[in-house]
Amino acid sequence: MNGMNGQIFNHEELYKALLNVEDLMDSLLTPWFLHNKTAEDVKNNKLLEGNGIDVMIRDKSITQYVRDILKGYSFDPATLKNGFEYKVGNVPVRIKIYTKDYEFFKYPDHVVYQFGTYQLANPFDIYWKSRFLIR
Length: 135
What we know:
Elements: H1 11-28, E1 33-34, H2 36-43, E2 53-58, H3 64-72, E3 83-88, E4 91-98, H4 103-106, E5 109-113, E6 116-120, H5 124-130
Parallel strand pairs: 2-4
Antiparallel strand pairs: 1-2, 3-4, 5-6
């Protein structure tokens, strides 16, 4: 799969995918956070770089409404346990579903990036050190 095999995408490709996932999340009416390298680049107001776009949503946000909307996008709601992935062009968009309460998601930091406002974990430093442990 592109992105997972070490392919690095440019800012324009990644930003297009970020706008796409933003539209998807807006249609789901659920809170979401930027994750991994995507979060780091937005936090530091850098051009996006990397092998895809990563975001997170809470498992409690996966309501019947969300499942119905995702069906309309051709996602199988039965496979949503840990998250799902889709592509915008060749860019993978990875949506991780987390199950535990984390203090750094309780009061998110709202960051303006390009022409949008995105939610980041707060405090970001604690999230960044523990991002691979999030379940």
